[in-house]
Amino acid sequence: MRKILIIALALALPLCACAQKKGFKLAETNPTEKPKWVTEKERPDYIYVKGQEGSNLADAKAAAMKVVVDDISQSVAVMVEGEIIDKTVMSVYGDKSEYKQEYINNTKTKLAKMPAIQGIAIQKADVYYEHFYKKKTGEEYYMVYLRYPFSEFERRDLIDAYNAHEKEIDDKIKLYNDEIETVSNIEDINKNISLLNGLKNELGEEDSRIHQINTIIGLYNDIFKSIMVEIVENKPGHMAVRMVYKDRMITTSQKPRVTSACAMSFDVKYINGVCHVNFDSEYCYPQDEPTVKISFRAGNSTPNKEIRIKF
Predict the structure, then answer these.
(1) Of 112, 134, 156, which one is at a domain's C-terminal end?
(2) Quick one: angle between helices 152-178 and 209-226, nearest 10?
């Protein structure tokens, strides 16, 4: 399988990558002597890039390293299939081979974000480059050859890290789903929604868990939409309310917005999760049926209660 991947990648390289362009002359090589590994039979614990072109040395090196990253990601993605711990069951539509390729592409997307892949650096590689120059026009280009050490042991470590990361995501999704039945704080709900959106960013677009996460986020937003505000106490100059969802009280550290057509000097504080509001109703008159409105913020919802002032 390893050799097939290398051959496939080699065929994908531009034809010009291995041939000197017409009119250009070799101006410089580094090292001066071409290393034996450039032409040697490929050894299994290395990834070989046999020529990547760039208009400057930095671009040529970047192109060569992209081949290395793609090679590692592709080979790990192929091998990781069937080895994922607690893999979410996916519905398969269409041709099986198309599904497999879709799965591989999705795995490569997630692998690219892992520290082990991001840690792949040209400093770890053997590098040889050739600098070509056309005197008449001043044009130049570089050709980079590269040998990157990557053993089967490192590949296995990367697969294990990928599987562990996937399981960690599954565990987090389950945790946030379970907390729907117990969460009782606005800030905790907002935090869970934010963390769930963060998990979505770690997954490829084709990952079935995206739908699962969106469903859980929807359930959290349903809590926000279903919160009711109950009156706990109402007496002259003082009101107390609490937010409830089903059979549990919902708390928040954020003070609500309190408004009235006549009352003023609002003083708001929480005691054991209950919101207490003291106010001055000197300019309120019973015949006007004055009220105080207490409004909370819960996601995109504003649970509120308008309460008649007592005298």
Answers:
(1) 156
(2) 20
